Amino acid sequence: MRERGLCSFMIKDFHFCPFCGTALISRELEGLIRRCCSACDFVHFKNPLPSAAGVVIRDGSVLLIKRGIEPGKGHWSLPSGFIEEGETPGEGCIREVREETGLETTVIKLLDVFHVTSNFYGEVLVIVYLLEEIGGDLQAGTDAEDVRFFHKNDMPFLHVRGFTNVVTEILPHLDD
Length: 176
Known about the structure:
This protein folds into two domains: 8-44, Ubiquitin Ligase Nedd4, Chain: W (Single Sheet), CATH 2.20.70; 49-173, Alpha-Beta Complex (Nucleoside Triphosphate Pyrophosphohydrolase), CATH 3.90.79. Strand 2 (32-37) and strand 3 (43-44) form a beta hairpin. The chain is built from three helices and ten strands, in the order αβββββββαβββα. Residues 1-11 have low confidence and may be disordered. By secondary structure, the protein is of the alpha+beta class. Helix content is 15%, strand content 43%.
């Protein structure tokens, strides 16, 4: 069984079968070269890591965090993070927003799904939700140096292009 928390760059050199220990071989399968076990037919599929991000609007302003850890330390971002085992994407989004901002939220709707390639984590699938604030106290949490709401005229640079695209799409619809 794979240890939790390993970054994809650590998994790229997967050389042995996690079930029987046999050395993996490379072969074409479903149009791609994949690492496979010749003894038990295990196939190492390299799938993107699932993550979720939340868009919270208050008085026409968008909630952002200043990242306190890499990747993107010191840069502004939507509250986001990886979906944990046993969570739905919406539940992961709500948890990440609570951990990073102190706010309690509920999912209103899905806004976007996009793919990014990170030098830090490898391939990441990002699922973005519009959330409604329902409680909590705004405060920087576990992965954040700072947290605040930004009016559309004061929006800082966001370190993930997909986040910029989502926020840019929402900004014209915010009340002044």
